[in-house]
Amino acid sequence: MSVARACTFSELEQDSPLRVELEGVPICIVKDSAGEVHAIGDTCTHGNISLSEGFVEDDTVECWAHGSRFSLRTGAPLNLPAYEPVPVYAVTIDGDDVLIDPNVTKEI
């Protein structure tokens, strides 16, 4: 297991995605409107678009290019044109550090 520091909790703005790359894996980190931190794959499965450039509402992120929304909890696409999920990563908060293992996806 190779847990890595992705960012600090204080860097995260509510409903504002942050893109990080850990061990070559692009990850979209979001602190949702409830204050919960999520980490999903940053690339929309419909097109090669960064989800961290998208829009957050509740516990979803919307790809700005074609409007597909993804669940921040499960990675599942909630509407077309995307039909494949994005990976979801476990997040650990240790003090002010946000820790993620980019090699292990959560079982949903």
Structure explained in plain terms:
- InterPro entries: Rieske_2Fe-2S, Rieske_2Fe-2S_sf.
- Pfam families: Rieske (PF00355).
- GO terms for molecular function: 2 iron, 2 sulfur cluster binding; metal ion binding; monooxygenase activity; oxidoreductase activity, acting on paired donors, with incorporation or reduction of molecular oxygen.
- The chain has a 6-stranded antiparallel β-sheet with strand order 1-9-8-4-3-2, with no helix packed on it. A 3-stranded antiparallel β-sheet has the order 5-6-7, with no helix packed on it.
- The model has no long low-confidence stretch (mean pLDDT 95).
- The protein has a single domain, classed as Rieske Iron-sulfur Protein (3-layer Sandwich), CATH 2.102.10.10.
- The protein is mostly beta strands and 108 residues long.
- The radius of gyration is 13 Å and the shape is globular.
- The chain is 0% helix and 44% strand.
- A hairpin with a 5-residue loop joins strand 3 and strand 4.
- It has no helices and 9 strands.
